[in-house]
Every structure is written in C-alpha cells, then in structure tokens.
Amino acid sequence: MPLLCINLLVLVLLPLSLSCDSQNLPIEVQQNFLALVRTHMDNTRENITDELQNLSCLELKHKPPNCTTEKADFVETLLIQACEMQSLRLQQTKNLARFVQMSIDCPCPKKPTKDPSVKSQKRMARNPGKKQIKKLCKAKAILSCMTLCYEKLNTLLMDA
C-alpha cells in the first residue's frame, strides 16, 4: 500500500517539477527545431539505428510522453522527453537532449545531491550489453515520440 501512495504522489508531482517558465512561443520552438534540432534528431536516429542494427526492441513497459492529446502542451512534453533522454546517459542522445532543452529555453530540473555520509551501493550489472540495448531501445521510443510532437507542432502552425 505505501508503494502505491508513493507512485501516485510521484505521478501528481512530476509534471509540476518538470514544468518551466519558458516564454518561448510554439512558433519559436518550431523555428529552433528547423534551425538546430532537426539535424541532431536525424543524427541521433541514425546512430541509434546503427547500434541496434540486427536487434529488435521489445515493447516498453513505460511509454514516453507524447503529443497526441487534444490539449497537448508541446513545450512541456518536449521537456519531459528531453529529460528522460538525458537521464539515459547515452553518448548518442546527450547532444539532442541538450539542444531540445536549449530550443525550448528550459533546462531539466537538477536532481538533489546525495548526502555524502551515505555510501551508495552500486550493483554490478550482470550483462552490461543488455542494459545498453535496453537504454537504446528506450531512446529510440522517446525519439519517435519527440519526432511526432515536432511534426504535430509544425502541422498546427502551418494551419494557423
């Protein structure tokens, strides 16, 4: 029961912690995408595809946020996607996450620092290659959702 309460609390507070006070309008986000982000998305997609060449990604348990809802907040959704991508700590996605944050003028919130008196207990990965593949698959899913958000934003702004 306590785990359920904690999970619900995280779901309620997470959007608040990731919201930002960006003054960028959707048109500015679109212009930044066309000028900077698109190239990094293409490069990242190519790098991930090369890494996952003969491997298939299973369906993820956790679906990345997307812009398919009627009142999707594109800036907030893109920030959440960029922060999730950054948290993967993959060399292939580092630049893209940074450029998306710069393009929407919102950094990812900093994680609280750990108390130095508490020693962290890292577990050794049983199969580091398997973990890397899982991260790459998650990055691929986030990248797909991010691409859809930008495409939907472009479509909305073209119709306006």
From TrEMBL:
Q: Compositional bias (Basic residues) spans?
A: 120-130
Stretch list, region Disordered = 110-130
Q: Keywords of this protein's UniProt record, alphabetized?
A: Signal
State the signal peptide span: 1-19
Q: What is this protein called?
A: Interleukin-7
The source organism is Ataeniobius toweri
